[in-house]
UniProtKB/TrEMBL annotation:
Residues 318-338 are annotated as: Disordered. Residues 8-284 form the SET domain. It comes from the Eukaryota. InterPro entries: ASHR2-like, SET_dom, SET_dom_sf. Residues 321-338 have a biased composition (Acidic residues). This is SET domain-containing protein. It comes from Crotalaria pallida. Pfam families: SET. SMART domains: SET.
Amino acid sequence: MSLAVPNSPLKVEEIQGRGRGMVASQPLKAGEIILRDSPILLYSALPLSTPSLSSSFSASASGFCHHCFRTLPPSLQGDSSSPTVSCPSTPHHRFCSSSCLSNAQNSSHSFWVCQALSHLQANPQMLEQPLEHQVQARFLIAAYNLANINPSDFQILLSLQGSPDDSTIAAAQFLHPLVSSLYSLLRMNPQNGFSLELTSVLLAKDKLNAFGLMQPFTEDDDQRSVRAYGIYPYASFFNHDCLPNACRFDYVDSGPPGDSHNTDFIIRMIHDVPQGREICLSYFPVNENYSSRQKRLMEDYGFACNCDRCNVESNWSDNDSVVEDNAEDQEEGMEEDQYENETMVASDTDNNLQGDNNDFPHAYFFIKYMCDRTNCWGTLAPLPPQGDTTSNVMECNVCGNLKSDDDFDTDKGQDETPMED
């Protein structure tokens, strides 16, 4: 049984051994926008803290709007005196505009959310917890708030894949009493069967379906952190592939302040695919090596990947020694596990492009579709086609750079032009 995706050439189907996934309902072109998806829930990835407890809080917390998560302009960062961009109850919660604050007070930053976060930020027991638990607490507050303000979206959240495991049950056993105490303290009436079991289920949905909205890219930062997490009802159906045929673009810092669609996801095709083909994203940068990918997928999502790329790389021998032999030729200061696959690709590129596919049949993907900007590791996809004509300009989904596709194999990295906002 399949389910059509509104305003999209995709459908949701049950795929043997992979659960539900996205399938092309018609032939798709490189660069084609196949989905625009808005989040039903967003929450901050910041640790729970207060200015009085952490000298670094003000700088980190004031850098982004607490509703739409845009980067705040310098004139608003670190200044909690303006009533038009600060929450009246908690001035360290900052907003990019008065309209964003107004929208937040009716949704993501309701009175209950505001007060609940304030109480948690003053709770020494909570502040001693690892960041993962603090962010999970933020999610639970956002999720139970969603149950109050938009029950239909809350039911969509519950319909997504994900069942409690040992880790989510353990987290729920610790976090549920804290959230329950907030209901009692603030004299709020919980909705939708508030219980330990429901808290466990919610944490499981979050674990499998949350997407990270990353901090702005800079070449000096090889460890970009997450500014916020979001639950996207349709994007959550995309399965993973280590060589994806589509990739996600987000433009969080684009558009005027108060525009509620800046956190929308845009999914674009990397290359042409026929009707009936499953459309997959990569859940993390494609440069990660085989063992790292398998570890992340098992720990974070509970499955082992057997895509074509993994089937090839699982048969490689002496993987680490090959990387060490080639590492001397790479740019100084780069972490070895960040470029292991690129090193493999570089050693086999000529043979593979001439048709020798025995060692690494996917070298072409890395040469054409992986951004080579320092510390980026993003995926390149063509700009949306004009009519039936595929664009020859490729855009990176991480750093936003544009480059021509015409001479990717001879002048790689020479035609980069910053993308205009």
